[in-house]
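Bench notes, afternoon.
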Amino acid sequence: MIRYQELRKNAESVAHTSKIEVLRQDGVAYKIFDKSFDRTQIFYEAMLQVMASEAGIRVPEILGVEQVDDRFAVLSEYIEGKTVLELMDENPAKKDYYLDLLADTQLSIHSHTVSDIKKLKHKIEREIKKAPYLDEIKKYELETRLASMSEHNKLCHGNFGPENVIIDEMDKIIVLDWVAAARGNATADVAKTYLKLTLISTELAERYISLFCGKTDIKRQYVYEWLPLTAACGLNEKNLSEREKAVLLSWLDVVDY
């Protein structure tokens, strides 16, 4: 068992939320989960990252799951580098280059089919049922739309965005944060990325979707059909700002039913 106080004394804090803390020590990242997470959830997250690695996607290597006092932590290699979000902020003139890189990376993830992880449609359905700010009529409409959408077995990251893609010191691309990975329709995954980018910049989101659709036979309208569903899921995020909440709510009726 790892003692938290000893680890905290010697480690550097990398990130901290109300439920997860990430510390770094000697090239190892310790992702420490709050006690509200049960052991099954934590081991499942580690398994998803291993699965992504075995599919040929570059991710931080999982080193194990350890108990830290009365909590658990996933241990993985710490990657030195900058996120694509940081790089776009530092190099505004290269935003199109980085958006193109993001699109190619997301397409490479979707090129894999999987069969032994949770279904994305099931995950979306659960999120809609518990979404705040929605009445039962709206939830029923969304659930009806979800049932009509095509179901695939593509590997979907579930939270793909510029803050979760790192370019390391060797210019290699590493994809982080696989906790929401699922098997399903790749267009739903793209819709989630579009919404995440919209919260940064509408122009950025539109440029991304144009790039993505230009590289595939996916039509922009098909991505838009997933937006009310992914927006409803986004309402479950903790600590949403009023602007973020307003953007998500505005997308609930973007497509006529």
